[in-house]
Amino acid sequence: MSRAYLGEFEELVLLIIASLGNEGYAVSVKDALSDQANRKVNISAIHSALYRLEKKGFLNSRMGGATSTRGGKNKRIFQVTAAGFSALQASKDLRSSIWKTIPQLSFAVIN
Question: What H or E segment, with its residue span, contains residue 69?
Fold first, then answer.
C-alpha cells in the first residue's frame, strides 16, 4: 500500500479523535475543533474527513448506543488505528525537522 498523506484538516480531526478516546463522533469533533482550534466547521466537512480517514485506514468506527437526546438514533464512534497514530507521528516528525531548518530559529529549542 502506498503511503497515504494527511492534509492539515485531516490531521486536526485525527488528533481530536485521539484526544477524545471513546467519545470521538462527528458532533464531539465539531465541538472540540471549535473549542481547541477556534475553527468553525460544517458538520458535513467533518463527516467527509472522518470517512476519508477511515478509508485510508487511520480510523475504525463502530455504532454507539442510541440515546433519547438523539431521538433514538445511534451515533458512529471513531477510534484511531495504529496506522493513524503512525501517520500522526510521521507528520509531527516532518514538521519538527522542517522547523529545525529555519535559520532564525536555530537558537530555539523545538519539540
Answer: none
The mean pLDDT value for 70-90 works out to 89
CA distance 55 to 79: 13
- What's the CA dihedral at 80, 84, 85, 91 to 10 degrees? -140
Sequence-ordered list of residues with C-beta below 8 angstroms from that of 97, at least 6 positions apart, any chain: none
d(Cα 39, Cα 7) in Å, to the nearest integer?
A: 15
Cβ 46 vs Cβ 29: under 8 Å: yes
Q: Say whether pTM exceeds 0.85.
A: no
C-alpha to C-alpha distance for 10 and 16, rounded to whole angstroms = 10
Q: Cell for 111?
A: 519539540
Residues 6+ apart with CB under 8 A from 37: 12
